[in-house]
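Long-time lurker. I teach an intro course on protein structure, and each term I like to show students one example going from raw sequence to a predicted 3D structure in token notation. This year I'd like something fresh instead of my usual example. Would anyone be willing to generate the tokens for the chain below so I can use it in lecture? Attribution to the forum is fine with me.
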Amino acid sequence: MSEMSIDDIVTLITKQVMDTIAQKKQGECPADSPVESVRKKVLLVGPKDPLPEGILTGAAVYDIEDFKAERNVLKYDQVIITKISLAQLSDAANGRTGDPVANAIIYALLEGVDVIMTGCALCYRKFAGKGSSAFYNMYEGFAKKLQIYGVKLLDSNLQLKVQEAVPPKYPSKPAAAHMPVFPQQDSRLITESDALKLAAGAKDQVTLPAGSILTPLAKDVFTRAKLKVVLE
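-- Reply from a regular --
Happy to contribute to a lecture. Here you go:
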């Protein structure tokens, strides 16, 4: 092979650099590019069409087949999900790592790798208001779980929507402590103590208000005192 002149070498290097710059601008640089090691590495699960313009600019993009080959999520700087099946959503939310997509999401969250999911990836949302709300709410619960775990969700306007814990609602004023209420003693009830007081000042009979109720001991007091009980 003939030796290249300095001009030929400069021309070749310039062409390679210009080609790389053009590819970076399009966000489609091949993973094996000479500058791949210094660029952001993105694991893209699903098509790139739903993503905001520029989100992949300058990134080395890998697909799920690349992850399946090594199962090493630390190879990537970011995981972006634009398509996920209901089974994969359920597996990821419940910590099941058998499926490659669920595995990538779970270990990315555990390892601190940034995970972004687009709203369009949640295919069940097209059924909102149509059929079983229980099923819909179950899958919506899975999506919210992933947000709580750290997944960043791009809403319909392609803006990041972070799931925040909802603070519990408290009444504006603290409710009064529940105190047991005891009934007042019925004034018509004549106890032994009452009977002794009445008997002390009586001669032949004791007159009580209508409806008075005597306890057995009160009756004994009047009986021993040989007093007749009269109700008004």
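Some talking points for your students: The two ends are 137 Å apart (CA to CA). The first helix runs from residue 6 to 26.
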